[in-house]
Amino acid sequence: MLVAILLGFLAGLRTFTAPAVLWLMRRDTPLAYALGVLALVEYVADLSPKAPARTRPLGLVARGCSGAFCGWTVASLGTAPVAGAMLAGAVAAIIGAYVGLAIRSRAITLIGRVPAGLLEDVITAVASVAVVAYV
Q: What is the pLDDT of residues 25-41, one digit of tens each?
């Protein structure tokens, strides 16, 4: 269950990174590569000053679904009950979205918008790999 929560939280930071890493490391399928491409597209789109806030309704729904998807995937690997893992992942993603926004806003004032975004990308990717390697 902890893995579902951690990956869900990371999905709150970047919608596609956690599921992409999870699938690329644990399920080498076309979906894994599609998620990887979506993660890369998200990194580029996030640097745009016109990128919508992650806490707007559509962003929260996407992150919640991503967290639930991570929870489902973790459960399918045999490490947690499905419903609980999905719920935990979704809730953690919503929390991650708000926590990430607060930290990113502070980072923007300290180092600028683009460096803060790139730093968040790196942290999310590295943390996702570390969590999935634990599974």
A: 999 899 999 999 999 99
Tokens of 88: 């935990």
Q: Which H or E element spans position 104? A: helix 82-111
Instruction: Residue 122: name the closest of 21, 38, 1 by CA.
Output: 21
- List, for residues 105-122, the tens digit of each pLDDT value: 999 999 999 999 999 999
Domain regions of the chain by residue span:
2-134
Do residues 128 and 7 touch, judged by C-beta distance below 8 A?
yes
Q: How many CB atoms lie within 10 A of CB 120?
A: 19
pTM score, whole prediction: 0.94
Element (H or E) spanning 69, and its range?
Answer: helix 57-76
